[in-house]
């Protein structure tokens, strides 16, 4: 069976998705303060690997990296609510790209599966 | 934890410690400046073992294939034996061809390479003075001109900038490395896309280089250059740029002075926004150089205004003490 990553068009589609997704995150006042003082190019690179992972594409995701990468954010108050917002914008992004609802749900499930790593629990 | 060998001595790195930090902890002096993978002054060579791919981002192909890497970005995953690069392997000699002041604190330095050296206008080279290595952007077309033009701002107590301003003279030798960076004119499909360039202070150096390159290659899309400064004393090459704009109908030169009495003319962010409003955002290429805080902010704003991230090119001029800009504020 094809992964969503292949279905939506591989890494080119991920590049498009990241552009939409990151704009949503940066304009959402519930989460955008986490991005103050971050380098945009590095963020975009990180989000590409994240989206590739949740779309089922080739990735070298490790729970340890995810934990390390978010430790300082958890210290600044990152919690379940923020993870929900990420999943919400992920869904919105995929909708804009014309992805069907049950596939969006699959992505949300995958994203949900890393929740504990992200929140260092 | 992987072990690290340097000058024949082997020790173990701490968890998540970069090679730069590890060696500094051992009392070694390793050249560095930005500490965030942007300036390449911490270049090192793995004599045995393979450095991580993250630590090779932005390096030239020839350096990557020979296992060179950036010490500040390398948290090794295997044992490595490392050394500082020898000058003969990665550096070239130049001599000072000319030196003149462009503004109160801005020096124009022309360097004549003693061997073949090819580089795009807007890329940067590293000047090497013993353990001190600092990056400077190329403001001219070195391949056509045969020399490199750099614009160097004197920083209070800045070690390299004061040395270049005060101590070196015409015909003196200067060692350089590079080039590096992807802030340069690049037209693959056509030459009629719009270009917007904005920068502060000596951020003008790469931008002026890019404009010169684009015009030289017959770019016919609109080109707008916005040079920001605190006040008129920070502006340089005004006459040259006005002349260029007179001569090339597609090129517009704008100054943005923070202390200007005219509010319409004192906000670089607003200036960039209003220039972009009249352009095709899906095609425009944006170049941003100079103060890291400003470049960082502008980059996000330009992206949010609708310019795709892959069309935004930037060189934040990170100095040794602004290196922290990239780290999350730990307590805000
Ligand atoms: C990609 C890139 C391109 C660049 N291009 C240019 C360019 O075209 N033109 C240009 O002028 N610059 C450019 N820069 C910046 C340049 O590389 C140097 O960082 C800059 O010239 C300062 O170097 P310095 O050795 O003179 O100062 P440093 O000695 O490194 O000091 C930097 C500043 O920090 C202060 N400082 C240093 N140490 C301390 C300390 N311990 N405590 C408190 N303060 C301290 C100094 O007073 C000084 O103001 C570029 C940087 C990058 C990364
Ligand atoms: S790239 Fe390592 S110190 Fe700048």
Question: What does this 3D model show about the protein?
Answer:
The complex is a heterodimer of chains A (121) and B (332). Chain A is mostly helical and 121 residues long. Chain A is built from seven helices and no strands. Chain A has helices spanning 4-7, 10-27, 40-54, 63-75, 80-96, 101-113, 115-118. Chain A is globular. Chain B has 332 residues and is an alpha/beta fold. Chain B folds into three domains: 3-85, Beta-grasp domain (Ubiquitin-like (UB roll), Roll), CATH 3.10.20.30; 88-180, Translation factors (Elongation Factor Tu (Ef-tu), domain 3); 187-329, Rossmann fold (3-Layer(aba) Sandwich), CATH 3.40.50.80. Chain B is built from nine helices and 16 strands. In chain B, strands 9-8-11-6-7-10 form a six-stranded antiparallel β-sheet. In chain B, strands 2-1-5-3-4 form a five-stranded mixed β-sheet. Chain B has a five-stranded parallel β-sheet with strand order 14-13-12-15-16, sandwiched between helices. In chain B, α8 (268-277) packs parallel to α9. Chain B is globular, with a radius of gyration of 21 Å. Classes of the chains: A mainly alpha (121), B alpha/beta (332). At the A-B interface, α2, α3 and α4 of A face α9 of B. The site of flavin-adenine dinucleotide has 28 residues of chain B, from β9, β10 and α5.
């Amino acid at each position: 069976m094809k992964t969503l990553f292949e279905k939506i068009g591989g890494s080119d589609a991920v590049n498009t998705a990241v552009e939409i997704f990151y704009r949503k995150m940066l304009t959402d006042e519930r989460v955008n303060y986490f991005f103050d003082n971050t380098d945009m190019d590095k963020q975009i690179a990180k989000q590409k690997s994240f989206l590739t992972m949740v779309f089922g594409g080739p990735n070298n995701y490790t729970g340890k990296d995810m934990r390390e990468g978010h430790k300082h954010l958890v210290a600044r108050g990152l919690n379940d609510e923020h993870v929900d917002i990420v999943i919400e914008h992920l869904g919105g992004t995929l909708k804009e790209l014309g992805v069907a609802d049950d596939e969006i749900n699959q992505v949300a499930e995958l994203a949900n599966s890393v929740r504990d790593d992200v929140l260092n629990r | 934890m992987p072990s690290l060998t340097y000058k024949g001595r082997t020790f173990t790195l701490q968890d998540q410690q970069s090679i730069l930090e590890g060696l500094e902890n051992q009392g070694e002096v390793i050249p560095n400046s930005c500490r965030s993978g942007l300036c390449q002054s911490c270049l090192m060579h793995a004599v045995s073992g393979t450095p991580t791919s993250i630590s090779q981002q932005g390096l030239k192909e020839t350096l990557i294939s020979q296992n060179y890497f950036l010490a500040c970005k390398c948290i090794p995953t295997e044992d490595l034996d490392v050394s500082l690069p020898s000058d003969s392997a990665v550096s070239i000699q130049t001599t000072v061809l000319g030196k003149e002041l462009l503004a109160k604190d801005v020096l124009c330095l022309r360097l004549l390479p003693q061997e073949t050296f090819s580089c795009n206008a807007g890329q940067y080279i590293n000047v090497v003075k013993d353990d001190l290595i600092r990056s400077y952007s190329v403001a001219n077309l070195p391949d056509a001109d045969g020399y490199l033009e750099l614009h160097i701002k004197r920083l209070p107590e800045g070690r390299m900038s004061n040395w270049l301003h005060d101590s070196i003279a015409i015909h003196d030798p200067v060692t350089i490395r590079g080039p590096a960076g992807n802030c340069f004119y690049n037209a693959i499909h056509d030459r009629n896309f719009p270009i917007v360039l904005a920068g502060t202070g000596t951020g003008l150096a790469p931008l002026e280089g890019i404009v010169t390159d684009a015009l030289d290659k017959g770019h016919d899309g609109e080109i707008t250059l916005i040079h920001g400064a605190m006040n008129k004393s920070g502006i340089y090459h005004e006459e040259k740029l006005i002349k260029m704009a007179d001569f090339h109908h597609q090129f517009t030169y704008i100054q943005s002075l923070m202390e200007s009495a005219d509010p319409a003319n004192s906000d670089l962010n607003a200036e960039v926004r209003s220039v972009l409003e009249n352009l095709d955002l899906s095609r425009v290429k944006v170049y941003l150089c100079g103060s890291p805080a400003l470049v960082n902010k502008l980059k996000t704003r330009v992206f949010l205004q609708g310019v795709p991230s892959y069309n935004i090119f930037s060189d934040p001029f990170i100095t040794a003490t602004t290196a922290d800009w990239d780290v999350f504020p730990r307590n805000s």
